[in-house]
Structure formats: C-alpha cells, structure tokens
Specification:
This protein has helices at residues 16-20, 38-51, 87-93, 107-110, 143-158, 171-176, 194-210, 220-234, 240-255, 298-310, 312-315, 319-329, 403-410, 412-418; strands at residues 11-13, 25-32, 58-61, 67-70, 78-83, 118-125, 130-137, 189-190, 211-218, 262-269, 285-292, 338-339, 349-353, 371-374, 383-388, 395-402. It is an alpha+beta fold. The chain is globular, with a radius of gyration of 21 Å. The protein starts with 10 loop residues before the first strand and ends in a 21-residue tail after the last helix.
Amino acid sequence: MVQAGHAPGTVVRCGLTDTMLADVPVSLVLFYERAPDVSRLAAGLAKALDRVPVFAGRLRTVADRRLEIVCTDDGVPFSVYDVAESLGDAIGRVTLAGAGFIDHVDATKARVGGLPLLTVRINRLVDGATAVGISWHHAVADMQGFIVLLRAWSAAIEGGPPTDALIVTDRDAYLDDVLPTQDSGRPGFRLPDADEAAAIQREFATALGANRTVQIYFGAAEVTRMQQKFGAEAGVPLSANDVLCAHVASTIRSLDDDTEDRFLALPVNIRRPLNLSPAVVGNMLGEIYLSCPAGGRPETLAGDIRAAVRDFVGSHLNVRANREFLAALGPSRLPDCVPIGFNPAQRTFSVSNWSRFGAYDIPLDGQRPALISPAANPPLPWTSWLVEGFDGVGYVSTVVLPARLAARLRGATGRDALHSYREPGDMLPALATTVRKLV
C-alpha cells in the first residue's frame, strides 16, 4: 500500500457530475518498451499522492446521496507481477476483460467507504517491457484530473519542479463562479422507464459475453487525407477528432446496415471552453450530443462536430440544466438516472477523446509511453475512446461493439472501409505490426 505519509484530512464535496459517474471506474494501461525501476515508481507515487491527496483518500456518502472524498491517506494498492508475454502480445490482449493487467477499482462498493480509489499494477513482460495498469474511481477525477496526478508522479521521479494541483473542496460551488446564467437547457441525464432500466441491467450482466473490443490504428498521413477531404466538403478546417469521430461512427453504421436516425455523444473537458485551470482535479465534463440522420455523410457529420465544438458553451453546455433536472427528481432518484450518451437500445455511439492531454510527453523513470490504451470494465457496447497512437504518432480508436459487428470490423470488408484513406506506401509503426487483431 503506497501512502504519502501525511493525511491532510481535507474533505472534498463531490459535484453532481462526480456523483452521477460514481458507479464507473476509469482504467487504462501505459505500455513502456523498457522496465522502469519499481522502487522509484513506488517512491514517486507516494510523493505524488502528497500533492494530489484525493487519490489516496476514501469516499463516503452523505445524507442527500452526494459523495464526499476524505483525504485520509489510506493509500493506493501497488502490485508487481511477472507476465509471460511480450509487449506486442500484451497490447493485443489489453482490451480483453480477462487480460489481467489492471486491478479494477470496485467503484460501486467504494461509494460506502473503506475501499481504494486508485490502484496501480506493474506488469513486467518477458522482453524487458512493462505494462503499468491503472484504475481510479470516476468520482475522483476525469482524464484531465488523472493527468495532474501523472505529472506529479513524473516530477517526483524525474526531479522536475512540482506540478500544479488544484483541489477544490466544493466542486459545484467552484463551477458556480464561472458558469453562464443560462445554458443549453438540455439535461445530460435521463430517467429510463422500468422496461428500459431492466434492459440496461441486462446489458451490464451480459457485457462480457455479448461484446468485443476492437483496436483500430490510423496513421498520421491517413488522418491528414481525411482532414483535407472532409474539410473541403465541410468548407471549414477540421481537427483529427472531428474527422475520426465522424469516419468511425459512419463506417460502423454502414457495416451494421443501420438505416435509422441515431445520436452521437462526445464527452467534453469543460476546463477549456470555460477557461478553467487545467490543474483542477474532478469531473469537469459536459458533452456534445448530435443527431445523426439516416443516410448522413461523414463529411457533414465532421462539420457538425466542428460547429458544436466552436459553439459548445452556447449550444451544448448543460451543467445548470443537469442540476435543475435532477433537483426536480429528488435525491432518491439519482441512482436511477443514466447519461444520455449511454443508450444501447438506440445504439447511441459515444466517443471519449483522450488525445491532446499530453500523456505521451510525461516520462516515468526516463521513459515515455509506447502506447496508452483504455481498458473498459465491463465492456459496454457503442462506447469508444480515441488516443494518440504508438509513440504518440497517429491515433488508436478503441471501440466496444456487439460481437458479430466487431467481427465485421475485423474482416476484410471492415478493414477496407475503415482504411479507405490509407495508401499502399503508408508505413505502419514497427510495434503495430506485432499486435494481434489490430485493425
């Protein structure tokens, strides 16, 4: 158990978004081509927890069903295993539910207190590489909040200056000072009826057997061609996120022979549009929620995503709308609500963009990651993540789909459709060629 050695006792009142995400862990694996020194990793983590103490604390539920994090320094489980796999084999298996590279946080049980909010598992591979599996409770932080911890961890090992970490004790009150008086008015949560609630429970119960996770690598040149073509069609410059979200979602719909109207949900880090400090730890999240009409073109969808990003505060920010919606329901109904982006019956496709956080530039014991991969637990369908690719070049899209549709993506037709902008001369990274089932 890694501890900072100091318990500040700070109590952080979680925000509404933290509470609504509190049954979900966030899990990822950082792959390194050489093995960092385990003792230095543990000692550096202890110093990082002193800087960002919420990760070493414990949760408690208060009277109105909101959560609080108490910075008790109860610590973080830190395990080391020797694994009989190479780096390429490990990357190919990381998306399997039984891969074993992560000790997933038990998010639901941790809500009542006593259980860790962060776990670290060091997997030493046979070829001298290492897979660092990390899982944290979603109520503690989003991806940006984890990056604050990762930078503090790196600084402690590398000897750099201490990184900024902003721990606010009342997260909703912190947002009150910067939120506009009115927002989009569209809540980001909904209350399923009894039949849908039962169907959602079945999705969780059957997720391991019913769904498969697909890793798709897009090279830098491939993405640039997409940006040029889609941008010309849309009449505006487009980001890699714009075109990849549109391309992957549209290709999956086509391979699924889906001719219905659907929706696309894109979680958004609201620190940027609200000019908040990137050092604030918590779930500073909203979402873009877009209609995807039947027969829509990916170029049009990419343009719609760009327009939504540009006008996020005016058209999609919904923190106040969420509060009003959930206040009307009352605290007793909070556990019955789900995010609008999670709607398996309607095949709502959700893309969490983990790129642009700078994770590939953060060294641990002198090494930068060769790859960062999400690891869903459980693998819920129609969810996906977008992360920079091998050594930070290109992109990897990790997609969870029903098993039959996942097989279509891996087949020749699916590969041709997904890589319609790849050219014969495009070179794959050396590590990519060793990963089994990489599309």
